[in-house]
Specification:
Elements: E1 6-15, E2 18-26, E3 33-34, H1 39-43, E4 63-66, E5 71-74, E6 77-78, H2 79-85, H3 88-97, H4 103-114, H5 124-128, H6 136-146, H7 160-186, H8 199-208, H9 219-231, H10 239-249, H11 254-265, H12 273-284, H13 290-298, H14 317-333, H15 339-352, H16 355-359, H17 367-377, H18 384-404
Antiparallel strand pairs: 1-2, 2-3, 4-5, 5-6
Bound molecules: carboxymethyl coenzyme *A (CMC).
Length: about 425
């Protein structure tokens, strides 16, 4: 427990003829928690919460979401203010070190990231081992874990200095790996990082430049890319972050933990939803088809991708910023009357006024408009989740760092409600009917 945690009374539980007083703890904001750590010892009963809908699995000072109000704060700063005034590297500093950097801190932090963007030249052989039609997320899962084999000098997880070096390496190298995964899938030569460009510009250049021509980064796209990175930087204890923490709780190295997070992010209920959302809009195709599509959602034949969230029961604040980015990007490089954008805007309005979505508090999430934006920027759908992984790396590693610095950290080991056979004797194969 940190100094920010306060005792806030107790809750009484009566079970099995025993009365147990459980401490209640308050953080700085958000719901109190009932501390059940002593419950099993006192009652020999576990709690049951599949999907962790009512369970706080850790103490954290990074990110706070008020799902009813639709607010998202990083170290206290609202996401819309960060998206408007800050930049991704500054947000990385904020998440990793707790404060916005001073000018000199910013300069040295940015420089340390810029100086770590290159990959070991032997690392490129990993990409060549993949089929040329490999999904870039498959390449990400494999190659990021393989970083562990290259940076033995920063694998002592008990040394804060080495933990910080690993964090910087991951944030710096992720765009280079992601861009290579993209280049490999389109059969173009890899483009090396360039140190006079900022984080987003460098990434766009590594994705879209070719050796045969000069490449000028479009400032509107660079700004939009940076904002998309900010919007995805962290989101408290979501599935992939919890995966990173669980992997890290056993003492696994940070590169392996982030690879585990990437694997979890890939699923369509999590980071894969942006890919699914764009496919859905393409399938709908025209606004006239929306009523038929909505009827299928209400019949539970499929979900409205990019809608709904475990925590937000209001508009996801990231979705608002993403819609603005979609407007800006389409005005700069696409068609502001893009038929898919029209379908998305109309679909949103239909859903927001439909009883099914209203009573379940289903609102657009960050993925609803991100696919349209990324597609207009030139990314194929298979890259969408890769971009999410790139941006979320700072959140994952900051959460991992926070966990590793916590002296009360233990290996994560949930219990279960067992419903399998009770003990029975082994039957030789000749006697099984
Ligand atoms: N379309 C239609 N119905 C939905 C949707 C949806 N997108 N989301 C939830 N519902 C319904 C669900 O069927 C259930 O209805 P009922 O009460 O009749 O059984 C009710 O709303 C509650 O849903 P739930 O599945 O219990 O909610 P959850 O908290 O377990 O799931 C979710 C959250 C994000 C997995 C879910 O809303 C979903 O699958 N959305 C679509 C996928 C998506 O856009 N994911 C991106 C999330 S934001 C980015 C990220 O963090 O990765």
């Amino acid at each position: 427990m940190t100094d920010q945690t306060k005792a806030a009374g107790s809750a009484t539980l009566n079970y099995g003829g025993k009365t147990v007083d459980l401490p209640v703890l308050s953080g700085t904001t958000g719901p109190d928690v009932i501390d059940i750590r002593k419950l099993y010892g006192a009652t020999e009963a576990f709690t049951y919460d599949p999907g962790f809908t009512s369970t706080a699995a850790c103490e954290s000072g990074l990110t706070f979401i008020d799902g009813d109000k639709g607010t998202l704060l990083h170290r206290g700063y609202p996401i819309d203010q960060l998206a408007k005034h800050s930049n991704f590297v500054e947000v990385c500093h904020l998440l990793l070190h707790g404060e916005l950097p001073t000018a000199s801190e910013y300069e040295s932090f940015e420089r340390s990231i810029t100086m770590h963007t290159m990959l070991h030249s032997q690392f490129d052989r990993f990409f060549e081992g993949f089929r040329r039609d490999a999904h870039p997320m498959a390449i990400m899962v494999g190659t990021v874990g393989a970083l562990s084999a290259f940076y033995h000098d920063s694998l002592d997880i008990h040394d804060p200095v080495q933990r910080n070096i690993s964090a910087i390496r991951l944030i710096a190298k992720m765009p280079t790996i992601a861009a290579r995964a993209f280049k490999y899938s389109v059969g173009q030569p890899f483009i090396h990082p360039k140190n006079d460009l900022n984080y987003a510009e460098n990434f766009l250049r590594m994705c879209f430049a070719v050796p045969a021509e000069e490449y000028e980064v479009n400032p509107v796209l660079a700004k939009a890319m940076d904002r998309i990175f900010i919007l995805h930087a962290d989101h408290e204890q979501n599935a992939s972050t919890s995966t990173v923490r669980l992997a890290g709780s056993s003492g696994a190295n940070p590169f392996a933990c982030i690879a585990a997070g990437i694997a979890c992010l890939w699923g369509p209920s999590h980071g894969g939803a942006n890919e699914e959302a764009l496919n859905m809009l393409k399938e709908i195709g025209t606004p006239e088809k929306i009523p038929e599509f909505i009827a299928g959602v209400k019949d539970k034949r499929y979900k409205l991708m990019g809608f709904g969230h475990r925590v937000y029961k209001n508009y996801d604040p990231r979705a608002k910023v993403m819609q603005e980015s979609a407007n800006e990007v389409l005005a700069a490089v696409g068609d502001p009357n893009d038929p898919l954008f029209q379908v998305a805007k109309e679909l949103e309005q239909v859903a927001l006024n439909d009883e099914y979505f209203i009573e379940r508090k289903l609102y657009p999430n960050v993925d609803f408009y991100s696919g349209i934006t990324l597609s207009a920027m030139g990314f194929p759908t298979t890259m969408f989740t890769v971009l999410f992984a790139l941006a979320r790396t700072v959140g994952w590693i900051a959460q991992w760092q926070e966990m590793m610095a916590d002296p009360s950290q233990k290996i994560g080991r949930p219990r279960q409600l067992y419903t399998g056979p009770t003990e029975r004797d082994y039957v030789p194969i000749s006697q099984r009917g």
